Amino acid sequence: MFSVLKNLGWFFQKEKKRYTVGVILLILAGIMELAPPRLLGSAIDSIVAGTVTWASLTKYIVLILAVLAVIYFITYIWMHKLFGGSNLVERLLRTRFMNHLLGMMPPFFERSRTGDLMARATNDLRSVSATVGFGMLTLTDSTAYLSVIFIAMSTLISWKLTLAAIIPLPFIALAMKIYGKVIHERYTLAQDAFGDMNDQVLESVGGIRVIRAYVQERNDEKRFADITDDVYKKNLAVAKVDAYFEPTIRLFVGLSYAIGLTYGIYLVFHNELTLGDLVSFNMYLGMMIWPMFAIGELINVMQRGGASLDRVNETLSVRPDVEDAAHPAEVAKPDTIEFKDVTFRYPTSSVNNLEHIDLTVQRGETLGVVGRTGSGKSTLLKQLLHEYPSGSGTLAISGVPIGEIALNRLHGWIGYVPQEQILFSKTVRQNIQFGLPGAPDETILEAIRTAAFDQDLGTLSDGLDTLVGEKGVALSGGQKQRVSLARAFIADPDILILDDALSAVDARTEARIIDNIRNKRAGKTTLISTHRLSAVEHADWIVVLDKGRIIEQGTHETLLEHGGWYREQYERQQVESDLTD
């Protein structure tokens, strides 16, 4: 049960001073809470004996009020320390979790469900934070505070009465152990179900246009109703066990009260106990109710926190599929890109996605990559991003194998515009500044002109301050592509990768963008994959892929002379262009 505290040992070590002060003050407050019942008992004995005076009564009242004032002040401090630590560990773990996700490569996200990751980053982390706040409170009160009350009852009142009153307590411990095990199992299932529900919501919101287009609203509602019903049932199963804690504790605490009161009256009648002592004892017994409840709450919180921490640590323990080089080589600039007999296969693929690729690109050159759908164009370009474990052969930049280059340096050289453009729910300006943080409007407008988005900018309601909506939903496909291009252009990378990034623009706009790339990227490397061959006519070298192999390569002119797939496709596209015009 307490494994969660052991696994969080690094945090308690880091915040040792905070928790030392908090726990000591919590125990001190518990000890001071013993004073008012004892003072009240003494006052009652004075009244019974007839020795009470206004002076002595005033003294009792002042002492009780003074103790309560000190308890109030101490309680404020320990609550600030303990519950402040709860918020702190949640922040630290959430930051660590987010940084871990940012360091993961695509294979990790292909294996993981987004909704489940969200559940771990929210509900699970809140459960862990409750463990180091409310959990530490219940741990201290169910052990130290309970012990203090027990010692006070035994030494200050009557050890015989105390032993009789605590007879039911071992049964509480037994019941808590049984309930705790069931809570851990059911809470894990409930959190898994919550992750599934998150996934369903994300898919429904992301695919709302498709759902409406195929009139699947009612079916999607039913799927959501089924999955929320599953979440409800699994959380209800947790609540059913949780509901046993309080009645069980109340039952045995009630038995303690009955035993204490019955046996206490017996001792008073036999002059082994005064009436004031019995009142004090009953007040102490009442003070034991919270520590008894704290035992149940402790087990509940620890089991929930343990289950949640296990889920969080499961994610944090995953190593990146591609790790940074232990001793990265120093490479000043990416002068050459060289593929030497490179063969690559995705982790989820049963066949090679690239085979025996031999290719060299010099600095300042433009490489065109063309081929049928699924021929491996994107896979070839993504090799430079080094997001998957390397296959056989060697991919080298400036003569250094890519695995020996620091990932941050490698990615710092590259500007990448993928097939599926991702825009953030921010303004056009902020989306473009993602490529160059803090860029002035003049630089942004120059990148927009390079991406041929300047005319469209005037049609937007607020110009650069127009909100593009989630994933750029407020923009057309061609506009999203050009904003993504502007974001890459403003970064002015050494290597620009355009992965079919012009597919949604018309031929005239494409020609303008290509001309701008040729003029503004002189001396820098550009790699373009496309289905439209007009986008790579100007390239210094063009490769044609089929089933992951290079079947043709050369300049535009030599490939036309060769008379293979490239020429056939080029002539077909020329005819289609003439018919469109």
From TrEMBL:
Domain of life: Bacteria
The ABC transmembrane type-1 domain, residue ranges: 21-304
Topological relation to the membrane, as annotated: Multi-pass membrane protein
Location, primary (coarse class): membrane
TM stretches of this protein: 21-40, 60-79, 128-151, 157-176, 249-269, 281-301
Keywords attached to this entry: ATP-binding, Membrane, Nucleotide-binding, Transmembrane, Transmembrane helix
Cellular localisation: Cell membrane
SMART domains: AAA
InterPro entries per record: AAA+_ATPase, ABC1_TM_dom, ABC1_TM_sf, ABC_transporter-like_ATP-bd, ABC_transporter-like_CS, P-loop_NTPase, Type_1_exporter
Domain (ABC transporter): residue spans on this chain: 337-572
Entries under Pfam families matching the protein: ABC_membrane (PF00664), ABC_tran (PF00005)
Protein name in UniProt: ABC transporter transmembrane domain-containing protein
Species whose genome carries this gene: Paenibacillus haidiansis
